[in-house]
Amino acid sequence: MSLTPFACSVHTHATLCDGKDTLEAMAAAAYGAGVRYYGVSCHSHTPIPVDEGAVLPADMTAYRAEVLRLRAEYEGRMEILLGLEWDSCADVEPEGFDYWIGSVHYEKGTNGKYYAADWGEEHFLACQDELCGGNPLGVTELYYREMARVAERKPPILGHFDIITKHNEGGKLFDETAPRYQAAALEALHAADPAGSLLEINTGGVSRGYRTTPYPAPFLLREWKAMGGKIILTADSHSADTIVSGYGQAAELAKAAGFEKTTLLTLSGPVECPL
Ligand SMILES: [Zn+2]
Ligand SMILES: [Zn+2]
User: How far, in Å, from the CA of 240 to the mean position of ligand 2?
Assistant: First the structure.
C-alpha cells in the first residue's frame, strides 16, 4: 500500500475536551476519510479556571482507557494512537503517551493573569496594555518566549508554532514583517531540536474560518528546512468533518518551503511519505 499524507491525522480533539464530536464519531470519520493512523490529542489539564470542561481532567486514566478501547475496536483496520496536546501551563506531565504535541495557548502575566494567545483581539489588547506597555510586539515576544520553553522540552510535535497570528490577518494587531517580530519567532524556533521534534503544518485555523493560510508562516518553514527539520501535516480537528481538512493547501505550503516529504506517525514509529 502506498501511503499519502492523508493517511495520518494525529492532531484531533473530541467531546472529552473541547471537540464537537465524540471519540467514536471522530474515529469513524477518520476511517471513512482514508486515515489509517489516527491520533487522539485532547487538551491537557491546566489550573486555569476558564479551561475547566474544555480540557481533560488531571487524572487521565479514563481518557487513556477510552482511547485504548477504541484502538482494540479498530485493530487491523486503522491504528489509533494515544496522544496529548500538552499546554505550556499544564499541571500534568506529558508522560505515558504514544506522542504529544507541545502547544502554547496562554501567556501568563507577572500579575497572575492568563491571556489567551488565540482568543482574539480583546485578549491580545489586554495583554498588550497590562503587560507590554502598549507594544503589540511585546505580546508576541512573550508568546515566543513561552514557545521556546516548550520547544526545549523536545515535544514529538511542535503545535501551531505561530498561533499568535491567528487573528492577525492583514496585520490588524501587529506587523508580521517587522524584524523584531520575526527575530522573536526565529529565536523560539532555534530553541527546537530538528532531530527531536516535528513541526506541524496546522490547518485548524483555516477550517474554522479564522485564517486563509495554515500555521506556520513561510519564513518559519524555510528556516526549519534549513535547520534540517521535518514536518507533519495536521488538521487540529475539532469535528468529524475536518479530520484531514486543508491537507492539499498544507502540502503546497510545505513544497514551496522546499520540503519534499511529510511524516506520518504510526504505532511503530514515524514514517516518511512524499508530499
Ligand atoms: Zn492548540
Ligand atoms: Zn489542538
Answer: 14
